[in-house]
Amino acid sequence: MKVSHIEHLGIAVKSLQDAIPYYENILGLKCYNVEEVADQKVKTAFFMVGQTKIELLESTDPEGTIAKFIEKKGEGVHHVAFAVEDGVNSALAEVAGKGVQLIDKQGRKGAEGLTIAFLHPKSTQGVLTELCEKS
Ligand code: ZN
Protein backbone atom coordinates (compact mmCIF):
# COMPACT_ATOMS: atom_id res chain seq x y z
CA MET A 1 0.00 0.00 0.00
CA LYS A 2 1.12 3.55 -0.58
CA VAL A 3 0.31 6.11 2.13
CA SER A 4 0.47 9.67 0.75
CA HIS A 5 -0.06 11.67 3.95
CA ILE A 6 -1.90 11.88 7.25
CA GLU A 7 -5.41 12.74 6.09
CA HIS A 8 -6.66 13.64 9.55
CA LEU A 9 -6.34 13.18 13.29
CA GLY A 10 -9.59 12.17 14.98
CA ILE A 11 -10.07 13.74 18.40
CA ALA A 12 -12.85 12.67 20.75
CA VAL A 13 -14.57 15.57 22.51
CA LYS A 14 -17.56 15.76 24.83
CA SER A 15 -18.96 18.79 23.04
CA LEU A 16 -18.13 20.34 19.66
CA GLN A 17 -19.56 23.60 20.90
CA ASP A 18 -17.07 23.64 23.79
CA ALA A 19 -14.11 22.37 21.73
CA ILE A 20 -14.36 24.48 18.56
CA PRO A 21 -13.45 27.80 20.27
CA TYR A 22 -10.06 26.36 21.33
CA TYR A 23 -9.19 25.51 17.72
CA GLU A 24 -10.53 28.81 16.39
CA ASN A 25 -9.58 31.33 19.07
CA ILE A 26 -6.39 29.83 20.46
CA LEU A 27 -4.91 28.00 17.45
CA GLY A 28 -6.39 30.40 14.90
CA LEU A 29 -7.84 27.63 12.68
CA LYS A 30 -11.18 27.88 10.93
CA CYS A 31 -13.91 25.27 11.28
CA TYR A 32 -15.00 24.77 7.65
CA ASN A 33 -17.45 21.89 8.00
CA VAL A 34 -19.71 20.33 10.63
CA GLU A 35 -21.26 17.06 9.57
CA GLU A 36 -23.23 14.30 11.26
CA VAL A 37 -22.31 10.73 10.32
CA ALA A 38 -25.40 8.81 11.41
CA ASP A 39 -23.97 5.28 11.06
CA GLN A 40 -21.05 6.16 13.29
CA LYS A 41 -23.25 8.01 15.80
CA VAL A 42 -21.04 11.09 15.69
CA LYS A 43 -21.12 14.73 14.81
CA THR A 44 -17.83 15.90 13.32
CA ALA A 45 -16.16 19.30 12.93
CA PHE A 46 -13.21 19.83 10.56
CA PHE A 47 -10.20 22.17 10.49
CA MET A 48 -7.51 22.23 7.82
CA VAL A 49 -3.84 22.28 8.93
CA GLY A 50 -1.68 22.19 5.80
CA GLN A 51 -2.87 19.09 3.96
CA THR A 52 -3.95 17.40 7.20
CA LYS A 53 -7.29 17.88 8.89
CA ILE A 54 -8.30 17.82 12.51
CA GLU A 55 -11.59 15.94 12.91
CA LEU A 56 -13.35 16.57 16.20
CA LEU A 57 -15.80 13.82 17.10
CA GLU A 58 -18.78 14.29 19.42
CA SER A 59 -20.99 11.30 20.16
CA THR A 60 -24.69 11.60 19.29
CA ASP A 61 -25.53 8.47 21.30
CA PRO A 62 -24.46 7.49 24.85
CA GLU A 63 -23.86 3.92 23.54
CA GLY A 64 -21.76 5.11 20.58
CA THR A 65 -18.05 4.26 20.25
CA ILE A 66 -16.95 7.85 20.93
CA ALA A 67 -19.08 8.06 24.09
CA LYS A 68 -17.56 4.74 25.26
CA PHE A 69 -14.05 5.93 24.42
CA ILE A 70 -14.49 9.13 26.48
CA GLU A 71 -16.00 7.16 29.35
CA LYS A 72 -12.95 4.89 29.44
CA LYS A 73 -10.08 7.20 28.52
CA GLY A 74 -11.40 10.75 28.64
CA GLU A 75 -11.28 13.26 25.80
CA GLY A 76 -8.26 13.10 23.51
CA VAL A 77 -6.73 11.67 20.35
CA HIS A 78 -8.96 8.84 19.11
CA HIS A 79 -7.46 7.79 15.78
CA VAL A 80 -4.93 8.58 13.06
CA ALA A 81 -6.16 8.46 9.45
CA PHE A 82 -3.77 7.77 6.58
CA ALA A 83 -4.67 8.58 2.97
CA VAL A 84 -3.92 5.58 0.76
CA GLU A 85 -3.36 6.08 -2.95
CA ASP A 86 -4.21 2.61 -4.20
CA GLY A 87 -7.63 2.29 -2.63
CA VAL A 88 -8.89 1.25 0.79
CA ASN A 89 -10.09 -2.20 -0.27
CA SER A 90 -6.81 -3.26 -1.80
CA ALA A 91 -4.93 -1.87 1.23
CA LEU A 92 -7.21 -3.90 3.55
CA ALA A 93 -6.60 -7.08 1.57
CA GLU A 94 -2.86 -6.45 1.69
CA VAL A 95 -2.63 -5.80 5.45
CA ALA A 96 -5.02 -8.65 6.30
CA GLY A 97 -2.64 -10.90 4.34
CA LYS A 98 0.15 -9.67 6.64
CA GLY A 99 -1.84 -10.69 9.71
CA VAL A 100 -3.23 -7.28 10.74
CA GLN A 101 -6.58 -7.52 12.51
CA LEU A 102 -9.27 -5.46 10.76
CA ILE A 103 -12.28 -3.70 12.26
CA ASP A 104 -13.78 -3.15 8.79
CA LYS A 105 -13.43 -5.95 6.26
CA GLN A 106 -14.20 -3.47 3.49
CA GLY A 107 -14.35 0.28 2.96
CA ARG A 108 -17.44 2.19 4.09
CA LYS A 109 -18.67 5.74 3.81
CA GLY A 110 -17.12 8.25 6.23
CA ALA A 111 -17.40 12.02 6.68
CA GLU A 112 -16.23 14.40 3.93
CA GLY A 113 -17.07 11.96 1.12
CA LEU A 114 -14.25 9.59 2.04
CA THR A 115 -14.21 5.81 1.88
CA ILE A 116 -12.77 4.66 5.18
CA ALA A 117 -11.86 1.51 7.10
CA PHE A 118 -10.34 0.93 10.52
CA LEU A 119 -7.53 -1.38 11.58
CA HIS A 120 -7.71 -2.88 15.06
CA PRO A 121 -5.50 -1.15 17.68
CA LYS A 122 -4.37 -4.62 18.87
CA SER A 123 -2.41 -4.88 15.62
CA THR A 124 -1.19 -1.26 15.53
CA GLN A 125 0.53 -0.70 18.90
CA GLY A 126 -2.61 0.73 20.43
CA VAL A 127 -3.27 3.41 17.82
CA LEU A 128 -6.69 3.07 16.21
CA THR A 129 -5.74 3.44 12.55
CA GLU A 130 -8.03 4.58 9.76
CA LEU A 131 -7.25 4.17 6.08
CA CYS A 132 -9.08 6.47 3.71
CA GLU A 133 -9.41 7.53 0.10
CA LYS A 134 -11.47 10.13 -1.74
CA SER A 135 -14.51 8.32 -3.17
ZN1 ZN B 1 -11.54 9.69 11.01
Q: How are the strands of the largest sheet arranged?
A: 2-3-4-1-5-8-7-6
Task: Tell me what portion of residues adopts beta-strand conformation.
Answer: 35-45%
**CATH fold descriptor:** 2,3-Dihydroxybiphenyl 1,2-Dioxygenase, domain 1
Mean pLDDT: 96
Under the CATH scheme, which class?
Alpha Beta
Order of helices and strands: EHEEEHEHEEE
Shape: globular
Low-confidence stretches: none
Query: How many β-strand stretches?
Result: 8
How many independent structural domains?
A: 1
Summarize this structure briefly.
22% of the residues lie in helices and 42% in strands. It contains three helices and eight strands. An eight-stranded mixed sheet has the order 2-3-4-1-5-8-7-6.
Overview of this protein structure:
It contains three helices and eight strands; from the N terminus they run βαβββαβαβββ. It has helices at residues 16-26, 65-73, 88-97, and strands spanning 3-13, 31-37, 42-49, 52-59, 76-84, 108-109, 114-119, 129-134. It has an eight-stranded mixed sheet with strand order 2-3-4-1-5-8-7-6. The chain binds zinc ion. Zinc ion binds next to strand 1 and strand 5.
